[in-house]
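Figure 6 in text form: structure in, sequence out.
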């Protein structure tokens, strides 16, 4: 197994770990407000990380603090949109729309970096857009109905965070950047909670259980190690792997929260998952054609 495969295996584990947050957050928001939940979750995760890596944090560099803060800011906005949308729709749909970040990554690269879209990326975007349409346009109000606009905003900020992570992970220690990012999300969410909400600590054992699950599995592992995982792969590959999250979140929502899966939603899920496989399918089809062409010119 080469270094890129190891990185992508870690990234897959990170994405699957974070996919559990949709079900846990949906349940936790029955009693906690969005930014209150984010503040307690990420500051609790930071305490665990401080215990584990406190000695290394003494030597953190200004560059790592800068990139960690930038990523934390993007993820705070992204997750604020995510939880606002999650309150209005089911966990599977939330995850599918948010992880349409896989569409926005190549689009942002084209707009910002003037990187041309490849045929496979254009097909991926078309399939993913159709998939999102199936997930969102089937109900009254379409994309403008409650929740969906926030989720599309979340996807855009997630794509921006993927691109910045791709740069940041090569500029410093990705673990230090990840820890700084976790603290920043918790700190900014606490400020937003005091401004917009009435923050409080979890009161019951079940509330603390959900917070600890979110803090350790989703934040401590999922968010902290994303820069580490992305260091060995590309932004495009990281964006493509976002499709793992909605598949996992949908299954969890159906099993744990008893979310309903209509034919329209199922079709949207299939289209978005197909968009992940486009590069592999095109490469598979291209190889026999290239061989025949080589034989003909031999």
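Output sequence:
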């Amino acid at each position: 197994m080469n270094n890129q495969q190891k990185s992508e295996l870690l990234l897959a584990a990170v994405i699957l770990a974070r996919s559990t947050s949709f079900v846990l957050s949906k349940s936790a928001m029955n009693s906690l407000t969005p930014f209150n939940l984010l503040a307690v979750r990420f500051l609790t995760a930071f305490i665990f990380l401080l215990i584990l890596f406190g000695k290394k944090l003494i030597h953190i560099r200004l560059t790592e603090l800068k990139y960690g803060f930038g990523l934390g800011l993007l993820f705070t906005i992204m997750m604020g949109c995510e939880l606002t949308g999650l309150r209005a729709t089911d966990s599977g749909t939330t995850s599918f729309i948010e992880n349409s970040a896989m569409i926005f990554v190549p689009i942002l690269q084209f707009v910002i970096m003037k990187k041309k879209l490849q045929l496979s990326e254009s097909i991926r975007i078309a399939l993913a857009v159709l998939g999102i349409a199936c997930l969102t346009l089937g109900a009254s109000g379409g994309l403008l109905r409650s929740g969906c606009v926030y989720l599309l905003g979340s996807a855009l900020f997630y794509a921006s965070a993927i691109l910045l992570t791709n740069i940041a992970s090569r500029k410093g220690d990705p673990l230090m950047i990840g820890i700084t990012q976790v603290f920043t999300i918790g700190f900014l969410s606490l400020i937003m909670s005091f401004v917009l909400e009435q923050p409080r600590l979890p009161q019951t054992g079940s509330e603390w259980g959900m917070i600890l699950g979110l803090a350790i599995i989703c934040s401590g592992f999922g968010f902290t190690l994303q820069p580490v995982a992305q260091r060995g792969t590309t932004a495009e590959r990281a964006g493509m792997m976002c499709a793992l999250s909605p598949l996992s979140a949908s299954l969890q929502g159906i099993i744990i929260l008893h979310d309903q899966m209509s034919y329209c939603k199922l079709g949207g899920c299939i289209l978005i998952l197909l968009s992940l496989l486009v590069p592999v399918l095109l490469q598979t089809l291209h190889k026999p054609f290239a061989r025949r062409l080589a034989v003909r010119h031999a």
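Caption detail: Residues 3-297 form one domain.
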